[in-house]
Amino acid sequence: MNEIIIATKNAGKANEFKTFFSRYSINAISLPELSQEIADIEETGTTFAENAALKAEQIAEWLQKPVLADDSGLVIDALDGRPGIFSARYAGEPKNDQTNIDKVLHELDGIDMPDRTAHFVCVLAVAIPGDATIFKTGFCEGIINTEQAGVNGFGYDSVFIPDGYTQTMAELSSDEKNRISHRRKAMDQLETWVQTYAAN
Ligand SMILES: O=c1[nH]c(=O)c2ncn([C@@H]3O[C@H](COP(=O)(O)OP(=O)(O)OP(=O)(O)O)[C@@H](O)[C@H]3O)c2[nH]1
Ligand SMILES: [Mg+2]
Q1: 80 is catalytic
Q2: Cis upstream peptide for 32 (omega within 30°)
Q3: Which of 37, 47, 101, 111 has the fewest CB atoms nearer than 10 Å to its CB?
Q4: Which fold, 3-199?
């Protein structure tokens, strides 16, 4: 079976990529599954694209193989776009989904539902040794609930209600999330490249 390395240590992301790539019969392998230890890449960029490129290009260079990286996050309008590129570590180190959610809910305290609009962003970078890096972007629009609900997914899923739904992302099945998510939208943009990769 064809393989692709996913430059992530986030198990939630890795599981979603495994599902996406399985329909092309490609085995998506995340960093903790590799036999060699891969050091953390410092995400020093100022945009999702810069951080995705840092992760993909550094690891493609080390492994001399095509590598896909995902840099993603939650952009909340009432918070001037925060947590944005700092979503994973919004409440500080070590990164923790629950303390991040607590901080966001606290900052949105007193803000009514119509003004709690937000979107997830996913930028994918595919780095191929010797080639130009490819970038694809996906979005998922929604609103930040006043309380947590649901146990599926990861990150901020338990407070994010996608447009057109009454439940949070964490109350949806993984199949449903994978139909509408920012990550899915970015993967759709990558379809032509993935088909070519799968055929080789
Ligand atoms: O509720 C969510 N549903 C999602 O679908 C989602 N996608 C991203 N996020 C948030 O954004 C951070 C990414 O930061 P990030 O791209 O640096 O990834 P990360 O540090 O978790 O792992 P890595 O891929 O860098 O190893 C994550 O930790 C989450 O807080 C999500 N939250
Ligand atoms: Mg990260």
Answers
A1: no
A2: no
A3: 37
A4: Maf protein (3.90.950)
